[in-house]
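Hi, here's the filled form for the chain we discussed.

Project: internal
Contact: R.S.
Residues: 355
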Amino acid sequence: MNLIELRSVSKKYGNTEAVKNFDLTIKEREFIVLVGPSGCGKSTTLRIIAGLEELSEGTVLIGNQIVNDLAPKDRDIAMVFQNYALYPHMSVYNNMAFGLRMHKVSKDEIDLRVRECAEILELTDLLNRKPRQLSGGQKQRVALGRAIVRKTKFFLLDEPLSNLDAKLRVQMRAEIIKLHRKLKATMIYVTHDQIEAMTMGDRIVVMKEGEIQQLGTPDEIYNYPLNLFVAGFIGMPPMNFLDWDPGVILGVRPEHIRLSEKKGGAGLTDAARSSNKEYSISGNVEVIEYTGAEKQVFLQTSFGQLVVRTEPGQSIMEGHGYTLSFNAQNIHLFDQSSGMRLQHGFSKKISVINE
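And the returned structure, exactly as it came back:
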C-alpha cells in the first residue's frame, strides 16, 4: 500500500519556484530522507505534506485520499520541528499530553500513552521537569514523544538533530532508527547532512533547487550517482573530478585512490592493457588531515587538487611527491555539458591523457 504520494507538486513564492514538478511515492513503513543544500526545497516539501504550506500546483495523497484542502490537524500526521517547539512553562508530561487534550482524549488514555511513550524514550524520570531543566538531547526526545503519543502512522521530521552536538547527533540517529523499527511507522526525514541521509534512510531523495536529482537506496546513490551534483554532494570527502576526454568528466572517490612513492613520469598514464585497467597521476602532498581512523591527503596535480583517504598507519609526508593510482572499475564518467552520468564499458579502450 502506498501511504503518501506527491504528484507534480509545485510551490511558488512570487516568481520564485521553491519546489518544481515534484513526484514521489512513499511506501508503507518506509524511512525516506530528503537531503540537499540549504534552500533546495526539502523543508517546503515536508510542510506541503503536513498542510502547513499551500501547494501551487499538483496533488498530495495520504492513504490514497487527496488531502490538498485538508487542514493539518485532519491529516493524521505528527511533525517534529528543528527548534523542538516545547512549551517552556509546561512540564515534560504536559508537553507530551497537550495535543491529546486538544483532541479530547480521555484523561486515563492520555496518562497511559504519555507513560508508555516516556518509557520507550527513557523520559520517565524527567516527566516533572520543565524544558529549561533538560539537555538538548532530552528536549529532542520530548519533541519526538509529543509526536509519538498521537499514535499516528505518519511522522515528519524537519532537521530534528541540527541543534545537537556531534556526539549527541550520532546517539540520536541510532535512537530514531530504533524508534522507527519499533513503531513500524512511515517516516519522512529532512536533513542537509548527507551522513544522516546515508545512515538512516531506506531510500534517499537528493534535491537541488526544488527538483529531485536522484531517488534511490543509499547504495544506489553512493555507487551509481546519476549526475555530477549527486556525485559531489554524497560522500565525505567528496568525489574527485578530472577533465577526461573532451566533453567528459571523470569522477573517482578518495577511498578508491592508492598512494605510493613517486616513480617518475607525469600526467595520467596507462598502467595496464586489460578490463582491469589502472591509471596513475603524479602529485605533491600539500595538506594532511589526521582524523584518527584515517588520513585525508590533499595533493596538487596537473588536474588540480585531489583528495585521497588512506590508512592512518601509512607514512605520508607533506611536500613530497607521490603516485596516485586508481582502477577503471571504480571510475564514474559524466557528460560535461549536461552533468549526467555516462554508461561506459570497462572492456573497451579508454583514452589516456598525458601532460
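Let me know if anything looks off before we file it.
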